[in-house]
Write a structure and sequence with these properties.
single chain; 5-stranded mixed β-sheet; alpha+beta
């Protein structure tokens, strides 16, 4: 068995030539195709379905990409089939023709022209592979190995639903016996990994869902994004120890409130990511929260708007 790499991506662009006309009396075929792989039960599993091109016997379909693992289980000799059909609005699509092939035919044999077969018709036309590219899809760790940095930001939920700081059942409870609350564990377990890839170890640290009264900074009403340093001009802390110490010391300046809004945190984080866009860096926002989100639509919009940022 010849293996294609699991991360190989195949790009195909197919064109039909002189396809069998199975259309109705006053209309030609409206062809589309399905790429299928053999299943363990002697059937065929769909890997890709093309768009329909109406009333033509020489369709030129859009290109598409598919992972080798999905297409052929990363096995060059795995049986594949393309089924070309003429579209019917009622769902009873008419068969134009089929072809059986393997990725070995394309990768090693260089085959680019394929004759279609039909169970009752002699000439069903052909498929031409106009474009074929095989490339590896880079994964996150590939970028890390090439020197990309991670910029970690953290936001912690201080809404009242977390429980009063002095309640031993609170998610923010601190214990004298060395036991860590859930937020402390999350900070340590995530931070210990991500900060290994952060060269300066400077972490913007925010809270949300509370009224705050720091010596140099206070909120008018509930704040849904405030620096746990108490200093709007200096929101970063140094390393894992800085995160833990600042989280612990900030509690005395915080009055828990609500509701739970993420959008102000997303806006602040997006500004940080935009400012770092020229760096070879990926920005990660860790949100530690306990419950229901009250501005989900705003958050969806902000996430879409930030799609071009490295976050």
């Amino acid at each position: 068995m010849k293996r294609a790499a699991n991360r190989d991506m195949f790009r195909f662009k197919w064109r039909g030539q002189d396809l069998l006309d199975v259309g109705k009396m006053f209309a030609k075929s409206s062809p589309f195709f399905r790429v299928q792989r053999a299943s363990a039960s002697d059937g065929w599993l769909l890997a890709y379905e093309s768009e329909v091109i109406t009333e033509t016997l020489n369709p030129n379909w859009r290109g598409f990409e598919v992972r080798s693992a999905r297409l052929c289980k990363a096995d060059e000799n795995y049986p594949l089939r393309i089924e070309v059909l003429s579209y019917s609005t009622g769902g009873l699509h008419q068969l134009i023709g089929t072809l059986n092939f393997t990725m070995h035919d394309i990768l090693r044999g260089g085959k680019r022209s394929f004759q279609l077969s039909h169970p009752t018709r002699r000439n069903a036309g052909s498929l031409l592979l106009q474009e074929f590219v095989c490339h590896q899809r880079l994964q996150f760790l590939d970028f890390i190995r090439q020197g990309m940095q991670i910029n970690l930001s953290i936001a912690i939920d201080f809404t009242a639903s977390n429980g009063d700081f002095n309640n031993p059942n609170s998610l923010h409870a601190f214990y004298s016996n060395g036991f860590r609350n859930d937020y402390q564990r999350a900070i340590e377990e995530v931070g210990e990994i991500l900060l290994n890839y952060d060269s300066d170890k400077q972490v913007p640290l925010f809270g949300f869902g509370a009224r705050v009264c720091f010596p140099g900074f206070r909120s008018e009403g509930t704040s849904h994004c405030f620096p746990l340093t108490g200093d709007e001009d200096n929101v970063e802390v140094n390393g894992l120890e800085g995160i833990k110490k600042t989280y612990a010391s900030a509690r005395k300046y915080i009055e828990q409130d609500g509701p739970t809004y993420f959008a102000p945190i997303f806006r602040r984080f997006s500004k940080i990511a935009a400012a770092n866009k020229s760096q070879n860096a990926y920005n990660v926002l860790l949100i530690l929260t306990d419950g229901e989100l009250h501005d989900i639509d705003d958050c969806k919009t902000l996430i879409v708007d930030s799609a071009e940022l490295p976050i």
